[in-house]
Amino acid sequence: MLVLVAPGQGAQTPGFLTPWLELPGLADRLAAWSEVAGLDLIAYGTTAGADEIRDTAIAQPLLVAAALASAEALGVTPDLLAGHSVGEFATAALAGVLTPEQALTLVRERGQAMAKAAGVTPTGMTAVLGGVEAEVLAALDKHGLTPANVNGAGQIVAGGTLEQLAAFKDDAPARARLIPLSVAGAFHTVHMAPAVDQLREAAQHVEPADPRVRLLSNADGQVVTDGAELMRRLVAQVSSPVRWDACMTSMADLGVTAMIELLPGGTLTGLAKRGLRGVRTVALKTPDDLDAARELTQ
Which listed residue (34, 70, 84, 85) is catalytic? Predict the structure, then answer.
């Protein structure tokens, strides 16, 4: 059983789209999607620096477009789909709930709204690797932080104000390693509540279809079969924790044997190697990875 997964914000790196532009038709596709997103996706994916593509309003459409373009180049039909955070919009399009254009329009609104919300209070996110989960969660609660991403495989991402994160760093849980993330705010926390209303308003103009492929939700890892329910969840996840651990549990329960992570791959396959042992994985980073990914489907 094959699952196709799409990464979230933070997976982008300068120039990651450059080798993909050599594939026939891909540059034209990205140019058309640039019109929808109101951004020069090709420039941001090839020549822009790390600080530019760290901007939430740029990173989110760029990531969704990259995932969709690499899925088109891959040309396989998965048994299951799951996306991490903004990657869920890409998988919603791949499942047929949204068109690519609808997904990018909504993500443009999402990115702008989240960037605006992030500007209200200085906030950030820190990955917590290792430690005892109960102790990590207790430490987050002590410092008023939110477990914004519960990723499984011993990884929890904390979100909150910079002051809260600094205090947490000075009082870290035993045997836990803290890594500050290069993101512009505390996503999937109460600090993003203002962005929910803006995205909900934009979503009212979209008529979703029901998924054609089984699709896991970030909210609880469950398969969502109703397009309207998925839209409700996509809106709510802006200020709600991402439960990637629950998604991986569902993958195991459903019998997943192979995972392909769409461009820019690496993060989710890394989690799978620790949380889904025995599942074969390929991360799409360059077009050279396409053949190995297709071999997983045979």
Answer: 85
DSSP class of residue 162? H
In the set 188, 239, 240, 250, the catalytic residue is: 188
First-to-final CA distance of the chain: 11
Q: For residue range 236-293, what is the model confidence (pLDDT) as tens digits?
A: 999 999 999 999 999 999 999 999 999 999 999 999 999 999 999 999 999 999 999 9
The region that residue 216 occupies, defined by phi over 0 for left and psi between -120 and 50 for alpha, beta otherwise, is beta
CB-based contacts of 186, cutoff 8 Å, min separation 6: 118, 123, 124, 125, 146, 148, 159, 160, 161, 192
Tokens 């443009």 found at: 108
Residue 188 annotated in active site: yes
| Burial bucket for residue 234 (CB in 10 Å: 0-12, 13-18, 19+) | buried
Omega into 264 within 30° of 0, i.e. cis? yes
Give me the half-sphere count of Cα atoms (radius 13 Å) on the Cβ side of residue 223.
16
Note the pLDDT tens digit of each residue in 132-165: 999 999 999 999 999 999 999 899 999 999 999 9
Once rounded to an integer, what is the mean pLDDT over residues 197-216? Answer: 96
Q: Known catalytic residue: 205?
A: no
